[in-house]
TrEMBL record:
Residues annotated as domain Aminotransferase class I/classII large: 34-136
Protein name (database record): Aminotransferase class I/classII large domain-containing protein
Record's keyword terms, sorted: Aminotransferase, Pyridoxal phosphate, Transferase
DNA-binding as UniProt keyword: no
A Pfam family recorded for this sequence: Aminotran_1_2
Organism per entry: Rubroshorea leprosula
Cellular component, GO annotation: cytoplasm
Amino acid sequence: MKKMHDLDVNPLTDIAICCGQTEAFAAAIFADVYVALDPPQWTLCPGKLLKSFTGRTKAIVLNSPHNPTGKVFFKEELEVIAEACCRWDCLAITDEVYEHITFDDKKHISLASLPGMQKRTIITSSLSKTFSVTGRCPTLIFLCPLYCGIISSWRIGWAIAPAFAASAIRNIHVKITDSAPAPFQDAALTALTSPPEYFEGLKKVEYVKELIKEAGVVAVPGCGFFHTKLSMEPSSEASCNYQKRYVRFAFCKSIATLAAAAQKFSDLKNATKYEQP
Ligand SMILES: Cc1ncc(COP(=O)(O)O)c(C=O)c1O
C-alpha cells in the first residue's frame, strides 16, 4: 500500500483478511459503530447513544433480547432509541430472535411498537430459538446425520418492514438464497400458530434457577441473569469484581467439550467457594 498508494497501513491493526473480495465487501458494508452497554445490568447510557449518531447515520441495529448478555431493553431505553431515530431520521433494524424467551416478567417490547417507529423499523426474527431449530446438533449429527440435517436446521427467518424496505429486502434475498424452502415455510406456519401455552412454556424459569443453583452458571438470554443482590449495586467494589467473573459458555459444542467445561466449572466452584445467588 505504501509503494502503490503511499498509504501508511499498520499490518497489525489496519487489515482484516477475508475469503475473497466478496466477503471483504460484505463485511465492510456491515461494519458498524458499537454503543457499549454498561454492566452489571447492561444499561443503555443515553449520552453514549446520542454521541454515536452523525448526519451520515442511516440505521441503527438493536438486538433485544440480547445474546450473549441476556439484556432485555426496558421501555425507557427503547424510548431513547426511538427518539434518536426520529430525530436523525434513521431506520432501525432489530434482531428479535429471542422474543419469546425471557426468564422473568419483563416482557420483550419491540422497538417498532413505539410511537412513530413502525414506519422506520425492520424487524428480523426466525424460528431458530423459539422452536429449537437453530442449527445442527453435533451429537445428533453423529448419530443420524440425515435426520439431524432435516430437523434441527430449518433456516426460516423473516424481515418485517414498511413496504418500501420489505420490497428492497426481497430483491436482495432473491440474489442471496433465492427462496426459503417451501415445505419449511408450511411447517413454519404451523409452528407460528401454536397455542399461547407453547410460547409461555419457553420461559423455563425453574430450569434456569436450577442451573444457577446447581452448576453456578446462568442461561442466555434473560434478565434472570442479574437477579442477584450483588448485581443491584452497580457502584460497589463487589459488583466490579462480579463483572470480572463473566464467562461465556456456548452450548453448541461437542458433548466432550461440554463435559470438559462442566468439569472445569465444578472444579472452579469448589476451589473458589463461589457464593450462590
Ligand atoms: C441474537 C441472535 N440473532 C440471530 C441469530 C441467528 O439466527 P438464525 O438461526 O435465524 O440465523 C442468533 C443465533 O445464535 C442469535 O443469537
